[in-house]
Amino acid sequence: MSTREPVAIPFGPRPEERVQLVRPGARRTYPEDVLARLEADAATIVARYPRARSAIIPILHLLQAEDGYLTPAAIDFCSHTLDLTGAEVAAVATFYSMYRREPTGDYLVGVCTNTLCAVMGGDAVHEALVDHLDGVTDGTVTLEHIECNAACDYAPVVMVNWEFFDNQTPESARTLVDELRAGRPVTPTRGATLCTFRETSRILAGFPDTRPGALDAPTAGEATLAGLRVAREKGMRAPDHAEPDAAATAEPPTDSTPDKPAPAPSADVPHTDGAAAKEARP
């Protein structure tokens, strides 16, 4: 008998990890007035889709706008509204990084530390903000790492409520969060003056952004438009669309016909009895 001790392997996240959908103090149900309002908004969203379950992404943004993060009440509401299981809703809610699973401040400040932003100083920006915000618990700013947001031409990039602040330094990032905490209007490098995280979530759910001038703000910077400008100066353009020939659109050959069962693994192997098989062995 082996004298080795058994090894216990725990599955799932540890209770202290910041990924739990069920947290102390998280809302389990909605008050009647909140529920009625959410049902009306959800009906507006679901009506845009041929199948109700297709509305899960904007519905989750709508629910995140209610509490600033997704709660058990949000999962239950989404499950009931879209006729999905709680597991199906939770799978989506925990897959996409834009869905929060813990209380979030009015401004979600994300610092990109992927390769190019890190090389250009993203790690230094993040470290500076960690030190600068140490002990801040007033609910105005939540700081996190973010993955690449396709703004490498402006590295290092900080995003606040998913709006870009380009070419940041530790000093400019500290000034940015101080302005946010002071309640002053802050305008990103590209985009409209910031609104709160909950207001942003409602916009992402598909409801109109009614802020004056919000839709007129620039959305692209000079570095992004440089290639387009050069192409226009040189008269460059994409080739005209041409009808593909029959050979190009032919279905590629497949190993089996979908409407026919695949042959058994040994269908083309001659049958041999046990004795013959033994004689054939080396």
UniProtKB/TrEMBL annotation:
Top-rank lineage group of the source organism: Bacteria
The keyword DNA-binding belongs to this UniProt entry's keyword annotation: no
Ranges in coiled-coil conformation: none
Record keywords: 2Fe-2S, Iron, Iron-sulfur, Metal-binding
Pfam families noted in UniProt: 2Fe-2S_thioredx (PF01257)
Disordered, as annotated region: 234-282
Biased composition range(s): Basic and acidic residues: 234-244
Cofactor(s) for this UniProt protein: [2Fe-2S] cluster
CDD domains: TRX_Fd_NuoE (cd03064)
InterPro entries with a match to the protein in the record: NuoE-like, NuoE_dom, NuoE_N, Thioredoxin-like_sf
Positions with biased composition (Low complexity): 245-256
Family in the record: Belongs to the complex I 24 kDa subunit family.
Protein name (record): NADH-quinone oxidoreductase subunit E
